[in-house]
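Quick one, tokens below. Sequence please?
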């Protein structure tokens, strides 16, 4: 009888312990893991849910380090992009991932008639908008740089080989944050983690919130402080990228010069827009389209977004907001000085 009571007590204790463990796991899954740090010359924010969220964060940090120090930066020696720039004029073999990224970017460049162009490195260096003392370059210097810019100057061959004309240089700044979002979400799915991760102006959303509700993402007010939203977009899984004239700029003689260069003029794009947000099925596409649509302007930009079955939010200089039908019902303006308008 005594042994039966002991056994029964052990069973009860085991059940209680099991309930406690399950409750703890449930707590771990419900509680978010929030981290903000810097990488790839921008701010990275994680908002993760799941038992493996901290393990995922460690792996995600390693991926960002790999992208910045081995792949994408043209400023760092020995990255793959730096090597491509150094080997300009020669046919070289690149990594499978680089070949895939460049092919996708080349397609958007062609479809946007050059509004997106990753060969703008000579122009970016000339303007030096991210440097300590940016200034407006001389007209003749811009003209000379334009001779070195053009997505057609990058050729593709079989067996992951490419050749870029001598004097041309790659700058993946227009798509790097989207590429990072693609790589980070792969880690999140492998670790069975839900949440959001933002890399500068690009955001990735994976899985459901623990309470089953949709994610609410703020759209930056282009004429307010960083982090101040003018609207909120409710969405499920997907990728969101924003390009705006407020991100990096300098003012000279009362004129704002931003970092999104028009490859046709060699100057900051003047399309009547202050911001473009694109929702797409992958980060590279959303990032590439946000830049291309910003340069094109709303009328041509909407056509490009439709070609890629992407959704878009355009904000013009007069604070008019244009939203594509696929996300219009899920978007809400929260500032009175912005006005929702129909496309013309």
């Amino acid at each position: 009888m005594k042994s039966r009571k002991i056994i029964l007590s052990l069973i009860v204790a085991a059940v209680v312990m099991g309930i406690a463990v399950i409750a703890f796991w449930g707590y771990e899954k419900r509680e978010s893991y929030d981290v903000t740090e810097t990488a790839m010359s921008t701010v990275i924010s994680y908002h993760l849910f799941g038992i493996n969220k901290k393990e995922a964060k460690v792996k995600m940090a390693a991926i960002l380090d790999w992208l910045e120090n081995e792949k994408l930066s043209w400023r760092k020696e020995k990255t793959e992009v730096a090597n491509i720039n150094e080997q300009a004029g020669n046919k070289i073999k690149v990594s499978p991932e680089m070949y895939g990224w460049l092919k996708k970017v080349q397609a958007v460049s062609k479809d946007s008639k050059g509004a997106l162009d990753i060969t703008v490195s000579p122009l970016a260096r000339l303007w030096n908008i991210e440097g300590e003392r940016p200034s407006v370059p001389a007209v003749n210097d811009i003209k000379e740089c334009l001779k070195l810019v053009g997505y057609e100057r990058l050729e593709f061959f079989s067996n992951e080989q490419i050749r870029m004309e001598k004097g041309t240089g790659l700058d993946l700044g227009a798509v790097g944050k989207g590429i990072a979002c693609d790589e980070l979400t792969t880690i999140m799915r492998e670790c069975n983690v839900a949440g959001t991760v933002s890399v500068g102006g690009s955001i990735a959303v994976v899985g459901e919130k623990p309470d089953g509700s949709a994610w609410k993402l703020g759209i930056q007010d282009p004429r307010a402080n960083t982090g101040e939203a003018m609207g909120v977009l409710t969405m499920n899984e997907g990728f969101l990228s924003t390009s705006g004239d407020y991100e990096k700029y300098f003012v000279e003689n009362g004129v704002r010069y931003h970092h999104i260069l028009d490859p046709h003029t060699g100057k900051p794009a003047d399309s009547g827009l202050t911001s473009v947000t694109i929702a797409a099925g992958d980060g590279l596409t959303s990032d590439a389209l946000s830049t291309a649509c910003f340069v094109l302007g709303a009328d041509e930009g909407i056509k490009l977004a439709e070609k890629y079955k992407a959704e878009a939010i355009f904000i013009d200089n007069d604070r008019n907001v244009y939203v594509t039908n696929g996300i219009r019902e899920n978007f809400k303006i929260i500032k009175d000085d912005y006005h929702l308008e129909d496309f013309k």
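The first helix runs from residue 2 to 30. The domain at 32-50+194-341 is CATH 3.10.520.10 (T-fold).
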